[in-house]
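[agent] plan:
  1. take the single chain provided in the ticket
  2. run structure prediction with default settings
  3. attach structure tokens to the ticket
  4. add a short note for the reviewer (M.T.)
[agent] executing step 1
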Amino acid sequence: KKTSAAKIPPTTSLSTSKLPPHNLAINPNHSLNDRPLVALTVAVLTGAIVELNLVSDHTRPNSALGLPSGGEVVGDLAMARYIARTWSSSQSNMGQLILGADDASSQSAIDQFVDYALIMSKKDEASRIKGIAMTLNRILVNQTFVASATSITLADIALYAGLGFPSQHAAKVALNKALSGGNNNGILRWLNVLTSHPAIRQATQLAVGITGNDEAVFDEDEYTKLEPLVAGMNALEGATPGQVVTRFPPEPSGYLHVGHAKACLLNDYYARRYRGRLILRFDDTNPSKEKEEYQASIIEDLAKLGVKPDVVTFTSDYFPTIRGYAERLIEAGNAFMDDTPQEQMQQERMDRVESVHRNQTVKETMDKFKLMCSGKAEGAKWCLRAKIDMSSVNGTMRDPVLFRQNAATAHHRSGTMYKAYPTYDLACPIVDSLEGVTHALRTTEYNDRDEQYRWIQKTLDLRPTRIHSFARMNFMYTVLSKRKLTWFVENGYVTGWDDARFPTVRGVVRRGIDIGSLRNFMCSQGASRRVVNMEWNKFWAENKQEIDKRAKRFMAIDKENHVKLTVTNGPDVETRSFASADCHPKDPSIGKRIVRLAKEVLLEAVDADGIVEGEEIVLMRWGVVKITKVDGGLEGTYLPDGDFKAAKRKLSWIASVAENTPCVLTEFDNLIIKEKLEEDDKFEDNINPDTLATSDAIGDAGLKALKENDIIQLERRGYYRVDRPYVNETKPLILYMIPDGKAKAMSGLKGKLAHR
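[agent] step 2 finished; step 3 output follows
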């Protein structure tokens, strides 16, 4: 797939905009080969890429990188060298290896090949390919890389760029064709190694993606296999097929709600789209709140959502490892033990005042840490804090707590084996790195903590993880706090966590949400990073579009408020007459249903109001009836050739026969009466006293065949989910009304609660 670069507008001076530190500006109008592919590759190799913010800037004649000092580095190779020198870690040392480490001979060899690549890049394509091929074929007889026996260096990347950076399928095919014939085994083998290198591929995707949602095509069938992005979703930055690992890390301290649903569905979407892996990791670091019940419910709810993780892990399995990393922080002087009372600590952090213990010795810190972990009472007052920057404008960087004692509560998995536990802030970046997570999807409320997350990974020399932010999902007239939802359950305002009035996953499923609709809705909001209060009507309108496609049609009449109509030429009950109707008027493939006919039929009282003698009405799925009598009881005559279009009233009805189905129609309303609760609002003062109403109805006999969770439409009433199938006359069919996103009901048949 070839694309032509847009024409670069003429420019006479460098961009006057000042780049913030670690911002890498790329002109999207430049051709792919003129984008900083070498610098991006080095950034991926060193792990610097997760700390860089790629910026699309069409005003810049050259790519540039903002420096902490306030200046800029301009140009691909200059940026590559700066990144390699700056982001070398003591563990991987990759940046130094890329430049030749501390060996002057290796450094000179690399510089020589980089200069050679620059010289060759000025030649025409044929001469450039021929010259580089002759050079590399001679060098690569007994080695894999150009200037190192074991690892990729800047020489390899620069020469690869000199050949046009042929990482994508079309460029690779063209170059292989140019190299066909002759003895080019060395360069072809080298090209295969570099083209398949994960860093080369990720750098290519980053460079391609700077223009928006464009994606690189590495293999011939890659484009057809990679599904188009769902509307509302953005490409995952730096993602390449087969290399993506996401994770959904719920704390087993409550039931999943619709906010969690967005997080797990987005993680699942990206893992599946990029043919990667999804990890379900239980973040079980707080035994005081966690229960086996919640853990089991989360697995059940993910199954309801159609999410099947590739692996299930537990943070608690990493407790010994996390403790080891905590001790490493202590040994490096990057953490200290503190017994400052909690409220005082909060105030000191707010006022940017250092703890009196901040400068304790490593030995003192280690002794106190071991005391805390022992579970002894004298260790209970101590906690481990990171030593970062108490003057930081980012409050999360002001020496956060990393470890606390909790000896009184047994962990639901490990029992009393551990007496102290890491905080989420410490455990998450460590386990993300160890489990190979490539993209950590986090809501924007964690934005301030992202800097802390990166500090922990960098300080501990851990493989960096890219953070992808998205906005959390809030709904009007709704609380999503686990504490508040628990209050509703414990105080009897709902029947349980699966109550259809609840915003839990099992609650909205019981209310009648279609999982495909839920996925589409969440994905449509996926790219947004702006936190908004969503209207439930939009959610249910999306749902209605899906359930309407398969909802079989039936009719039911209010048991108390109905009137009889005698169709004088209608069939007697004894004759057991039926009409045939489509189960779905827009989709005959769903099948047929039979409609019982009789001389006496039941109409809704509200529908019969105002009917006059001589008026022709339509009994849906039967035909036209002309009213012949109103006073003393409705009577009419069935007109086999009646005009359906001419009749103004098209009414639902039920034959008055013994085999009709008794139904209970259930409606719900919001638990909260205020659209958005402010911070100083007490939610207990905003409880809706009327959130559930039921009506008895008489439905046609076909309703007796319905199963639990079937979704139907009662014509002119609305959509319903079967909460309990019909058992007998004392255990009638229970139907839950499903909102359709409209402010008013689909007909004049009003329910007992607001239509929402």
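[agent] step 4 note for reviewer: The first strand starts at residue 23 and ends at 26.
[agent] ticket updated
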